[in-house]
Prior knowledge:
The protein is of the alpha+beta class. Helices cover 31% and strands 23% of the residues. The protein is built from 22 helices and 28 strands. A hairpin with a 5-residue loop joins strand 20 and strand 21 (346-354). Helix 2 (30-39) packs across helix 8, helix 12 runs parallel beside helix 22 (625-643) and helix 13 packs across helix 22 (625-643).
Amino acid sequence: MNPLLSLHQQARAETQFYDQIEIVSTFGSPQAEYAAIHKSCGMMDLPFRSVVELTGRDRHVFLNNLITQEVWSKSEKRGLTPGQTCYAFLLNLKGRVVLDLHVIELDDRTWLEVDTRLARMLAELLDKYVFSEQVRINLPEPGYHPIGLHGPGAQTILREEGVFETGRLIGREVVVWRNDPCGVPGYHILMRSEDAPMIWNHLQTRYSVEIEPGKRRLRPIGWAAFNTCRIEAGTPLFGIDFELAEPSVPGVREKPVSDDSTPKAQGVLPAETGLLDRAVSFTKGCYLGQEVVARMYARGQIARRLVGLKIENGMLPIAGEHVFDDQDNQIGAITSSTISPILSESAIALAILKKTAFRDRTTSPCPRRGGLKASQGGRFALLQSFISKEPVMIESPYRIKPGTRFKHNDFKPDDTGEFKDRKQAEVLSKQNLEKLHDLQEVLYAQAEHAVLIVLQAMDAGGKDGTIEHIFSGMNPQGCRVSSFKVPTPLEKAHDFLWRVHAQAPEKGMFVIFNRSHYESVLVERVKKLVPEEVWKKRYDHINHFEKLLADEGTTILKFYLCISKQEQAQRLQARLDNPRKHWKFNPADLEERKYWDDYMEAFEETLEKCSTDHAPWYVIPSDKKWYRNYLISDILLRTVQKLDPKFPKPTFDPLQYKVV
């Protein structure tokens, strides 16, 4: 029973059914609700989401053996820390998605946040996989109820309520975690069901009053506005955009799938969802369906994939409608659709298309029937991709995943990974740089992609050394370094991103930021150069700025070169001891060193708030320079390889010309 349903009925909200669950469609003003998500904050009731609870000392190991993300480190013998979250799939033995879930780690238990329709099935299925492990699976009692806050103002509201510091809202215990299905900052709040009406009324009463005509800090929203925004953001929903697979039951033999691309197999493969990098770890080891996933990943080929479509004639397709190419071949099907205000009231849709359609960008798919038909004369409406370019991310244990926390105490700046000495790492680094040199030429010639590398570190952290080692082999014609020092009077007269945007890379270029726009939430925060209410807002501004760059074709890699305080002391002393390094020493560095703990706190919050799918932060252990160089060369190479740059095809026939 939804504890908020009576409140929605009193507000005369329009409702609809999500399967058998009654949810709010709109509170009467869908346009204003849509605007709240994009401009302020929309508060949404989420009765279609529930939690399954795991307790017991073996719960992390148990779960790690079943889902696609790593929740237990075998090398360090520890699971997620309180406050950490991750997104994952549960697959069957055929490698197909049974359901998706968010893992939320609390002090003494782990919650799995899932679709309400699947919660009981998940609990019963997991219970069947328990053998000798010390783990208990149940639906938590008392019941918990979620609401969501979506929009650029969501974080500010939660901070004003003190939720991030205490985990309590108006004195009631709550659990808050990050989820951004609408392409804007989003937070889910889980609370006891009996507390839900009080918390809902409190937030609405305090924040939904008009601050000026037509403007509110918060507005209740329904499914209609949420669904439009999540389709615009290219966020699929399982059970809506994807068919769910049957789970694998212990002790029941299944007929193996001989071909990964067989259309008869029920469900969807992780690589077909567009969520592979977010939901799947390729370093954690075995889990259900892992063999199929690893095989497809190694091949780099998929038979179909979810894409976004924009219908030029504005006619709204319906879910399930087939999509055809201009030769009248069926190439896919619509899964969700809506009218997008932000795209000039265009009709947009999510669709599953065959690889021949989404790989060949010169051929646009055309619909043939129903509402997609443009005229009786048989002219078909052209479909074009509207989803932003898929983030180019690679798997790395050093990447800070969105919604997770980074604590320096949990990190080893002197880590050297699998290497016992520097020789092997240096050989691999050299090989990586040689490959990067070749790829740079192709990327420069193609002039379709840009790469931005952001370097941040404490003084003596190794930014200059990284630039010298990693980028010295690149052609200067396609590579540029931009350093950001103390702002000039002209720069201070503008917003903090003004001087940064002008240095963003053009297509075909690599640009390295030696320090960056993050100085405005690090130095200016620690030294109190701006008030707290100013720098707190900048996290959202930075995320929006980086999303703009990513949407326009810039791949962003951000490296935090993490050194220990002891290593910094040795490097600063070396500058004093060696006359050839005196020029590097600045007495002000010793003054900055006094703020070490404050800087560590600032870095932790910065990485937590600003590591996104489109602009990830990588924490690079940098006490050992050779390992730092290897890691960055490896991450950079694999990222550029994933961009798959190609030399442009000539606009003439080379065989028709001869130099004499």
